Amino acid sequence: MTSEPQTDYKTLIEKLQSDIEGLKTQLFYLVNTKIEFTNTELEATRLELQQTKTQLNEVLTEQFVGAVCAFAMPEPPLGWLECNGQAINRIDYARLFNKIGTTFGAGDNETTFNLPDLRGVFVRGWERIAGGHDSGRKFGTYQNDQLQTHSHTDSGHSHSGSINSNESHSHSASTSSAGSHSHSGNTSSDGLHTHTGNF
């Protein structure tokens, strides 16, 4: 027989089981608390980022509403309209209507308004303050071509040629009409020949 006191294994096992259950409970609480905290934090961050993204998109979108841009493609990209003068709905395109109104046409005067018609024309800057190159022109209006009176000068020059005989021959020339102008020339008579021109 041993002189050492006998260990009550049953009691020890029960205590260990109790400790283990308690530890599991504490770990479960800590883990769940951490998960809940992390989820809350992530959700708050996600919402904040989403709100920031939404605000940024609104700012960027608002800045481009009414802008005119050139694209190297036959069709405008998503979210853009072709500047072809068409009438579009004032409600469907409320943000654009709030920007340009009826500057380029009132549509049916009730439910639509017109886009600018830039087909085949150049876009030029508008002079907001008088005193520059194009004062007095109303914003959004078109300006017709202006071909100012001008002239071309030419210093004297000559054309020469030769033939081997004085036999009958002819000279001809043609030009297209391009404004008021004239052609003149002279030749000495030397044998039977003609000069024809279509001016």
Description:
The chain is of the alpha+beta class and 199 residues long. Among the domains are: 12-64; 68-121, heat- and protease-stable fragment of the bacteriophage t4 short fibre, domain 3, CATH 3.90.1340. Helix content is 32%, strand content 9%. It is built from two helices and four strands. It has helices at residues 9-64, 94-100; strands at residues 87-89, 112-114, 169-174, 193-198. The strands form two sheets. It has a two-stranded antiparallel sheet. The longest helix is centred in the first third of the chain and has 56 residues, at 9-64. The radius of gyration is 45 Å and the shape is elongated. The protein starts with 8 loop residues before the first helix and ends with a strand. Mean pLDDT is 73; it is low at 1-7.
Write the layout of secondary structure elements.
Elements: H1 9-64, E1 87-89, H2 94-100, E2 112-114, E3 169-174, E4 193-198
Parallel strand pairs: 3-4
Antiparallel strand pairs: 1-2
Short descriptors:
199 residues, alpha+beta, heat- and protease-stable fragment of the bacteriophage t4 short fibre, domain 3, two-stranded antiparallel sheet, two-stranded parallel ribbon, 2 helices
Task: Give a short overview.
The model is unreliable at 1-7 (pLDDT under 50). The protein is built from two helices and four strands, in the order H-E-H-E-E-E. The chain is 32% helix and 9% strand.
